[in-house]
Specification:
The chain is α/β, with parallel strands linked by helices. It has helices at residues 17-27, 59-69, 87-96, 123-136, 151-154, 164-183; strands at residues 3-9, 33-37, 73-77, 109-115, 139-140, 146-148. Strands 1, 2, 3, 4, 5 and 6 form a 6-stranded parallel sheet that branches. Strand 3 (73-77), helix 3 and strand 4 (109-115) form a beta-alpha-beta unit.
């Protein structure tokens, strides 16, 4: 049985290098790993406890929770916006964290990776996402990381899935997720 990795991409832009990185992850997933690319983060309303009640959870938020509940692990792929993660990704973590202490990410093996225009590949955004996931109760794999710098230049004419180094790196990330998910 394959390890199912739910993948959330923090960039909503068409042609996003982070969306392309997600596609590369799906293409180069090692044997025994199934990467599910979640779409629709832009449809999830901002978290509001008044709406997080039985029968009142917005359909888009419930779909995200259902996807996480059906996953063996979580992969967040984030760009860096003003030194942190995009609001849609933080909002997704907020919805997945509730009810606090038993939300959909509770103990879920989770990894944060990404690519960004700058020279550090978005590490600040990745650190912020790891912090939020930790607080939400996820099992964040702190030693499984991937930050690809200079994305606009590096992937100007080459899709990440066609970059041999990226292919190897995403396969390693997914192998790390798989080993922890299988141990749980």
């Amino acid at each position: 049985m394959a390890t199912k990795v739910l993948t959330l991409v923090g960039s909503l832009r068409n042609g996003s290098t982070n969306q392309q990185l997600a596609e590369a992850s799906a293409t180069h997933a090692p044997e025994g790993v199934e990467v599910e690319l979640f779409s629709g983060l832009e449809n999830i309303p901002f978290y509001n406890e008044d709406h997080d009640v039985e029968g009142g959870v917005p359909a888009a938020a419930q779909a995200l929770r259902d996807a996480a509940n059906g996953a063996d692990a979580l992969l967040l792929i984030t760009p860096e916006y003003n030194g942190t993660m995009p609001a849609v990704l933080k909002n997704a973590i907020d919805w997945l964290s509730r009810p606090f202490g038993s939300g959909a990410v509770k103990d879920l093996p989770s990894v944060v990776v990404g690519t960004a225009f700058g020279q550090y590949g978005g590490v600040w955004a990745q650190d912020e996402a790891r912090k939020a996931l930790n607080i939400a109760g996820a099992n964040v794999l702190e030693d499984v990381k991937l930050a690809i710098p200079n994305s606009v230049v590096r992937f100007a004419e080459l899709h990440p899935q066609d970059d041999a180094e990226v292919a190897e790196q995403v396969a390693q990330v997914l192998s790390g997720i798989k080993s922890v998910a299988e141990a749980n």
